[in-house]
Amino acid sequence: MIDKLVTFSFAEAFSQKYDFFATIFEYLIKDYNKDFGKYAEYYTPHSIASIIARIMVPEGVQNVTVYDPAAGSGTLVLALAHEIGESNCTIYTQDISQKSNEFLRLNLILNNLVHSLGHVVHGDTLLSPQHLNRQKNGLMKFDYIVSNPPFNVDFSDNRDTLAGDIYKERFWAGVPNVPNKNKDSMAIYQMFLQHIIFSMKENGGRAAVVVPTGFLTAGTRIPKKIRERIVEDRMLRGVVSMPSNIFATTGTNVSVLFLDNSKSMSRQS
């Protein structure tokens, strides 16, 4: 091992803009799925992150903001930053896991994104989003949002709070009810999707969100209202359905929604 490290070119690795923790995390959830299974669908494989970035970013993008409200170790935002150019974007993230935030900060340092370190925030995005606009009187809106939020998590303790009046503008489609059994099945991704749509900058904000494929046809109230909003505002740019078992330890079929909030797309025939 020492001999291998002595001959390894770290300079070359850094120059290739590599997400150092992507491969490590993929290895861990592959070999230790008993421990990491809960988070497997919350982690995006590096290859998928790269595809999403190439689809989202046109040529010549400069001075833009990139946001992930459930960032994990940062695989998605790093892929987007590399596609845009590190000096042409500022990354904003929030995640409820302090350990994930530590990984993300180190990843930013290793990938020439030190200028974004101050925007990596630890906290509950749904209850208390931390990135505010310049006037400090509302949430910041972003040029690019990319996220693979957790699909199903028990948030029953906060459900009634999130359904309160102060959250209604952001969670306009509603809040899932608490099931009588299996509270871990609460569809928290529906909350993140509403938050992401709310956080898109007007006149050209773009987003890519990983969702369960079942969301596309679900007949329940909240998914229907979200889809209706996306269609009515002409935000949908495309959907990519991923192969089965794309994540290491979950059989959930997933798709990526590509959204665009351009005024030119809104309510035109």
From TrEMBL:
Domain of life: Bacteria
Pfam family, one: N6_Mtase
CDD domains tied to this protein: AdoMet_MTases
Single Gene Ontology MF annotation: DNA binding
Keyword line: Methyltransferase, Restriction system, S-adenosyl-L-methionine, Transferase
UniProt-listed Enzyme Commission number(s): 2.1.1.72
InterPro entries on file: DNA_Adenine_Mtase (IPR051537), DNA_methylase_A-5 (IPR003356), DNA_methylase_N6_adenine_CS (IPR002052), SAM-dependent_MTases_sf (IPR029063)
Record protein name field: site-specific DNA-methyltransferase (adenine-specific)
Lineage: Bacteria, Bacillati, Bacillota, Clostridia, Lachnospirales
